[in-house]
Amino acid sequence: MSKHEQQWKSKFGFVLAAAGSAIGLGAIWKLPYVAGTSGGGAFFLLFILFTVLLGYPLLVGEFAIGRRAQANAIGTYKKLAPKTLWYLNGVMGVTTSFLVLSFYSVVGGWIILYLFQAFTGSLNGLTQDQFGQLFGATISNPVTALIGQIVFLLCTIIVVARGVQQGIEKASKIMMPALFILFLVLVVRSLSLDGAMEGIKFLLVPNFSEITSESILFALGQAFFALSLGVSVMVTYSSYLPKTQNLPRSASWIVIMNIIISLLAGLAIFPGVFTFGLEVNEGPTLIFSVLPAVFNQLPFGMLFFIAFLILFLFAALTSAFSMLESAVAIMTRNTGEKRKRYAWIIGSLIFVVGIPSCLSYGLMADVQLFDRTFFDLVDYAVSNVLMPLGALVTAIFITNKVSKSVLLEELQQGSKVGIIFFNIWYYLLKYLIPVAIVIVFLDVLFGVFS
């Protein structure tokens, strides 16, 4: 397959694939429980504000340099800034994606294990405490946890090995619409509950008295991380774009879809939590212990929970595709040559690297570095160090190493971007975003502002 053939078949297919990359565990798993512990509506409003003002400009910037270079994550920096060390940001981005997928696949495996238990009827009639015990038993069993991780990675490898058009784009065109439809069904059911209005108020009515510096900073970080920014994934995806693609509009759709999914996740979860008197600040176990307990108390509840697990799996897989593709594109140099071989090799390496994370709740639970299990350590390193650092370097690179004329030309290809829009976008990227990232970066490392 030639380089030209490694392109998106349609504009809509690219938007769905890129949105799938952005809409993952962060939107469906992480954001609802953090909203529950960080002020509900006030946190969600801040998240939307930061996503629009900070996440969107950086997303457009990554699209611009990726399509301009028509190269992989490392090749993009080498083309746009030859004979410099800027390509190391591409190296860091691909490495970060590799590490993210190594523990992301573990959580994907948990979803698959829960789906299996739901289909076999093992989840019927359990209380919240029993679900908590089941979750602990599921993630601590080394055999089943590894099997779940393997199955998740196999699904990811098979799709990526088929290529951009026949694999990632085709799968995204099925999974993303299905995800939206399933979510709408769940939200309609959730909003019919007695306590639905309390859940809606909690999510949508801001109570700024509960906002802390920590929740502001997390909303700021979530705005970047929820869009897969700073890890060169969007640079890789945009390298397959034709010049006719409207980059600002595509980025707008991805941001809008990400916000909508985050909203739907909250609307699917919080009405049930309030109806049955559960705690909104339950934390990371919200999806795996609280939510199934809610569904178990509803007529045909397990069918709805299975639907939720399926859409949860779809969201996880579409994000996983982009992470594996980022590494595969480096080895294949954006062509289809030896794609299948490298997809299997890299996918297998990710599994091996992810084994300690998978066993962090069982056999290796007592193995800790810096008071963290291997799973927590990798999660902390990529979320709080590598990702913000990558986003910062990317913003600096775009506004200091790529000329304004080149950026304007790239943004006007396929769109009618005016100079006013361009200047606002450019100054947000050059000044506001680096300052915001530095604040987040300093706080997560040293607690400067908390």
From TrEMBL:
The protein's matches in InterPro entries, at most eight in alphabetical order, are given as: Na/ntran_symport, SNS_sf, YocR/YhdH-like
Q: How does it sit in the membrane?
A: Multi-pass membrane protein
The residues forming a coiled coil are: none
Asked whether the UniProt record includes Transport among its keywords, one would answer yes
At the top level, the lineage of the source is Bacteria
The protein's location, in the record's own words, is: Membrane
- GO CC annotations on file: membrane
List the SUPFAM superfamilies. Answer: SNF-like (SSF161070)
Q: What is its main location?
A: membrane
List UniProt keywords, sorted A-Z.
Answer: Membrane, Transmembrane, Transmembrane helix, Transport
Q: Transmembrane stretches, by residue range?
A: 12-29, 41-65, 86-116, 143-164, 176-196, 216-241, 253-278, 298-321, 342-365, 385-403, 424-449
What PANTHER family does this protein map onto? Answer: TRANSPORTER
The record's annotation in NCBIfam families points to: Na_transp
Q: What is this protein called?
A: NSS family neurotransmitter:Na+ symporter
